[in-house]
Amino acid sequence: MNKRTYSIEQQLLFVLFTNGYLLTKCPLTPEDFSTETNRIIYQAMVDVDKQHKPIDIISIAEHIENTYRNVDMEYLGNIFEKGVGVATSFDNYVNIIRETSRKNKGKQIAWNLQSQLEENFSDYDPIQFAIQELMKVDSNKQSYDKTIKECLEAGLKCVQDAHNAGGMVGIPTGLKSLDDSIGGYHDSDLYVFGARPAMGKTAFLFCSALANDVCSGIISAEQGHEQAGLRFISISGSVHSQNMRSANLSESEWSRVTAGTLKAQDKNIFLNDEPGISITNLIKQARIWKFNHGLQILFVDYIQKIKGTNPNAKKYEQVTEVVGALKQLARELNIPVVALAQVKRDVDTRTDKRPKLGDMSDASEIEKEADAIFTLYRDEVYNQDTMDKGIAEIDAVKNRHGPTGTIRCLFEGKYFQFKDFPTRASQE
Question: Which of 138, 199, 239, 229 is nearest to 355 (CA)?
Answer without folding.
Answer: 199
